[in-house]
Amino acid sequence: MKSALAIATVMLLAGTAAPAIAQQADPLAEVTAQGDRTARVAKQIWDWAELGYLETRSSGLLQDELDREGFKVKAGVAEIPTAFVAEWGKGGPVIAILAEFDALPGITQSTSSARDPLAEKLAGHACGHNLFGAGSLTAAIAVKRWLEKTGTPGRIRLYGTPAEEGGSGKVYMARAGLFNDVDVAINWHPSDENSGAAQTSLANRSAKFRFKGVSAHAAGAPERGRSALDGVEAMNMMANMMHEHTDMDTRIHYVITQGGSAPNVVPDFAESFYYVRHPDADEVRRLWTRLEAAARGAAMGTGTEVEWEIIHGNNPLLVNETLQKVMDAKLRSLGGVEYTAEERAWATEIAKSFGEKAEPLEDAAKIQPYAKSLGYGSTDVGDVSWTTPTVGLDTATWVPGTSAHSWQAVAASGSTIGFKGAQLAAKAMTLMAAELFTNPDLRAAARAEFDASRGPDYEYVSLLGDRDPPLDYRK
């Protein structure tokens, strides 16, 4: 005989609405009422395009909006000036919504459908975190208003999480215990498609490897020099050979951040920035040991010295299918993103830049099939997912076929197409939060899956160790 919990879970996954929600005020109306706010906040953060841990204005804008709505805002959490936690409500379950707002360096673009870099800007929202922050803000305020109108007990929290792009802001927040009393965390991400599927991610760790040598005249006295750039290049060669002897899910990539200033000066300093990724956090640790050995060997072989600084590290996403199947159902009830004639014309021009990789524009209105799969990106949401049950979704904020970290993504993230996708995400997250506040069986089932997935002896350990947040890593 099935338990009451099992029966309730089956009803949920079949799309049966909780009676409590059906009889209460429509939470979607609160999202719709904030459409202008979503666009305004998203565009302002897009204009600022602030880098990780430097998002003073972007973080401040979100905090100001929440303060005006009656949230209690605590800024500077986890020893990060731009991180914050905003809460409204009392008693009941605690439901968290995550908000990001950092941009990427080295890529800029106007909202033109043709390549149009902006010389006056050094960064751009090529991953759409301006939309992430604005959409999450809208959802948190909508849920707050819904809780207030219906008298539903519980607390809604918005977590302002800086420096996702290589800074692991959420890891420091998780390490500080800020998610320990959260019942469920909700997040979303901009994309070129709509999906509530269960997609895991790669664990990763990064570091800057700094080689020190001896400068000299490259032609007049080369025997006196020891090139730090030689150390970097020797390490890169060995890392590439090492990569050949790893499994298919391993990702190792790097850039040379400093390599000298003039060919006729033997550089006495050079630096490379490495990422190592794998689905298994323990395998990342094993690979990292090999990478450190390559760095030491490169220094020995070139007569230089090397040291390194861990910059960030993320655990893989721990998928909770109990929650993801409900999120998938919520998203399907809403549908995808519909373009106006003007938006379709703009998107058509963007799609031409993809060549053979272009996808039908109609895909923006579709919901992708539900499945569990491995994603080859990495996110610091992974660490949140190991501290509390976590659920997420993607929405079509970009033209179908768009890659993240591209100029096309920057353009769309500042456009009405991006704002529509953020509104869709806000609606899905609001419906999910309302379900969680009123459905204790769903919360219990999600916690049971979470506990089983982690195992009885699990202890959270970050890939960062005990280092402080690298607040200057983008300077």
TrEMBL record:
Entry keyword set: Hydrolase, Signal
Signal peptide positions on this chain: 1-22
Cross-referenced SUPFAM superfamilies: Bacterial exopeptidase dimerisation domain (SSF55031), Zn-dependent exopeptidases (SSF53187)
Entry's transmembrane regions: none
GO biological process: folic acid catabolic process
A GO-annotated cellular component: cytoplasm
InterPro entries referenced in this protein's UniProt entry, alphabetically: Amidohydrolase, Aminobenzoyl-glu_utiliz_pB, Bact_exopeptidase_dim_dom, Peptidase_M20, Peptidase_M20/M20A_hydrolases, Peptidase_M20_dimer
Domain Peptidase M20 dimerisation: 206-296
Gene3D superfamilies: 3.30.70.360, Zn peptidases (3.40.630.10)
One of the record's GO molecular function terms: dipeptidase activity
Record's protein name: Amidohydrolase
Organism of origin: Qipengyuania soli
